[in-house]
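Board notes (copied after class):
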Amino acid sequence: MSARPHSPHSPSAAAPAAARRIWRIWLPGAIVCTLAFLVGLMIGYPLAALAVALAGIVIWQASQARRLERFLHGELSPGALPQQGTFGELARHLAAHTRQQQQRAMRSHLALLGFRRSAMAFPDPLVLLDNADHHVRWFNRAAGTLLGLQRPGDTLQPLRVWQHHPEIQPWLAKTGQEPLELPSPVNPERRLLLRLIPFSSQQNLLVAEDITRLTRLEQVRRDFVANVSHELRTPLTVIHGYLELLSEDDCPALEPILPEMRSQSQRMTRIVEDLLTISRLEAQQGLPEERVALAPMLLTLEREAQALSRGQHQIHCEDRLGMDLRGSAAYLHSAFSNLVSNAVRYTPSGGHISIRLEHHGDGVRLAVTDTGHGIPDAHIPRLAERFYRVSTSRSRELGGTGLGLSIVKHVLHLHQARLTIESAVGRGSTFACQFGENRLLPRLPGNDDGQAPDDDGHSPIPD
C-alpha cells in the first residue's frame, strides 16, 4: 500500500514549515552577530562590536515595524513596505489581508446600496424606529406619500403622524403584537395595516400596508351577506309555516319527504339567523359596559345543555371564580351557548361534558370540555372560519350551520378576549373563552342565588 501524501495543512507538514520560518527569522541576526564578534576580536573589542551589532538589529527591526504601522494607518502604500526577510513576508500577508478587507467592505457597501434602493422603491411605507423613544431613523418614499413624513424635519424626531390616536404609543412600545389598523395621516379615507417587526436589539421596522381596497371589498361582502340574509328570512318563514301546516294524513304521498323538508327548512332558517348575527357583530362598534352576572348565566347554560342532551350525557357545571364580568350579557350568552351546544352535539351518548368558570393565567376563562371524538391538529387553526367543517357528513347529520365558532370569535373580539382550543383525537376537546383581568368585577350580594337572567333562559343578541 502506497503512503498517503501529506496535505500542506496537515500537522506533519506544518512542523517543518514552522521550523523553516523560525530559521529565516533568526539566521540573519545570528550571522550579523557572529561577524561583528569576529571583527571585534580582530580589533580587540569583541563585546563592544557585538553590542553595536545588536543595537543596529534592534533599530532596523524598529524601523521596519514603524513602516508596517504607517501602512496599517494608511500613511504608506503597499509598495513602500519591506520586500525581503521576515518583515517582507509579514508585509505581504498584511497587504493581502487589507485587500480582502477592502473587497469585503466594497461588497457590503454595494449590498447596502442595493438594499436601500429596494427599500426606497418598496410600495409600502417602511419606517426604521428606535426602540426606546420611537425616533425616526430612516423611511422610504412610500412613507412620505402615505404617512406624510418629510426629510429632514421628521428624521431623528419622534413619530408624530398619529398623535391623535392614543392607541399607537402603547402599540409601539410592545413588539410582537397583532397588526394595528389606522387611517392614513395624509388621507383619512385610506386605511393602513401597521406591523412592527424587530429589526435589531435597538431598532424596530414599522411596515404599513395600504388595505383601503380590501376594506372596501370586505364592506361590500358584509353588506351583501346582510342584505341577502335579511331578504331570505321572510320567504323561509313562509315556507316553513306552510310545511308545518301540511300533515302526513292529508298528503300521504308526501309522508316520506315531509320530515326532511321541515328539517332542511329549519336548518336554512338557522343559517340565515346566524349570518344576520355575524353581520350585526361585524357592524358593532362598541359594547354596553354592563355587569354580567356569571352565576345565573352558568345555571342557564347548564339547563340548556341538559335540555339539548335529553339525558344522554353527564353534565357538570362548576364555578371556581366567584366573580362577575364587565361586558354584554346578551353577546356573552350567545357565545357560551354556542360552545355548550357544540359540545352536546359532537359528544357521543354516555359522554361527559363539563362547564368550568375559573382563573387562568393573568385572567379568567370559561372552559367547556367534552369527551367527544376530538379534532386533528391540522383542523384546529381553521375551526373559527365560516362554514369550515372537520367532517361534513357528521355536521350535516347533527344539524350544524358551521357558523357557531365564528360567532364566538366575533363576540370575544368585541370583549378583547380570545378563543383557545385544545383537542386530541379520541380524547375529547376543550373550548375556552379567555378574558383579561381588567374585565373582572366583584360579585354583588344576590348575584349568586342561581336565578337565571330571564324566565326562559334565553339571551338573544339584539337586532
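Comment from the instructor: The chain has four domains: 11-99, 122-210, 217-280, 287-442. The first helix runs from residue 11 to 43.
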